[in-house]
Amino acid sequence: MTEWDVKKLQILRTLRDRGTVTATAEALLMTPSAVSQQLTNLAKQLGVQLLEPQGRRVRLTEAAHLVLRHAELVFAQLERADAELDGHLRGEAGRVRVAAFSTSVPALLVPAVRHLRTVRPGLDVRVREAEAAEAYELLAAREVDLALSLAARAPSARDPKFSRFPLLADPLDVALPTGHPLAEAPGLRLADLASEPWIFGGSGPWSEITTAACEAAGFVPEQAHSASGWTAILAMVEAGLGIALVPRMASADRRGGAGVVMRVLSADQPRRHVVAAVRSGAEEGPAVARVLAALRQAAAARETIQHN
């Protein structure tokens, strides 16, 4: 029977995801030579060629991809076993480490943790703020147990490493300076703002979300200024330097002062989609399941507020 080594399979999977031996070694805190040696040993154990040269790099063979397709099922089953064993040992206790992007912390994660402290006081939830894409890197590296992210920055739903759970469709409102000609216009649509100067980040999810929303409305936004923090963005809007899309989920103290008017867009209201993700199989663990349930409850409460 073929000998399967889970640790070596994890190295092979990391190489597939990271692309190079050097990046794989950095991710796994190993040396490049140790990575190469482990993969050579795995190839011998399985009796197939796993890597082939591609210029100065290596690429996975078809046999390697076949091996990983089956290995993903093994990894998911091991996550389920870990979750079940953890639940058996801890009972009502346990620790769940969560990586979450900035606006989701006060809007979703804090209410969820408050609820859990009341109903499951033995459950220890540890929060780590992280950019939407970074959260998945932390999840894959087992540095966190749950990632709270944006669907636009998430891996494909077909990625076997993760189980994803939609939480919230967060509307985007437009911030206009007080006195703007369209500040009081009825039935304001995003397309009405095509000729305006826009303020959004130079890269990252917010840049992509703003650009995608405007393009869906039929125009490419002119980026007059670049900023990623809501304090800076809304200060520039108040000063009349431009306009910006603002997620409704953003906490109240970031919604601007008297010099900013928040307008709900009609007809083409853009939204960003918030998702939670765990390593495949981990959702069956009682501690992770309780955090997911609390996040769903917080998201449902948020949607009720938004609709009222």
Structural class of the secondary elements?
alpha/beta
**Count of individual beta strands:** 11
Oligomer: single chain
How helical, in percent, are the residues? 40-55%
Residues in β-strands, percent: 15-25%
The helix/strand series, from N terminus to C terminus, equals: HHHEEHEHEHEEEHEHEEEH
Unreliable residue stretches: none
Helix count? 9
The biggest sheet, with number of strands, parallel, antiparallel or mixed sense and barrel status, is: 7 strands, mixed
What is the topology?
Blueprint: H1 6-18, H2 21-28, H3 32-46, E1 51-54, E2 57-60, H4 62-90, E3 94-100, H5 104-119, E4 123-129, H6 132-140, E5 146-150, E6 162-177, E7 197-199, H7 205-216, E8 222-225, H8 230-238, E9 244-247, E10 260-263, E11 271-279, H9 286-307
Parallel strand pairs: 3-4, 3-5, 7-8
Antiparallel strand pairs: 1-2, 5-11, 6-9, 6-10, 6-11
Helix pairs in contact: 1-2, 1-3, 1-4, 2-3, 5-9
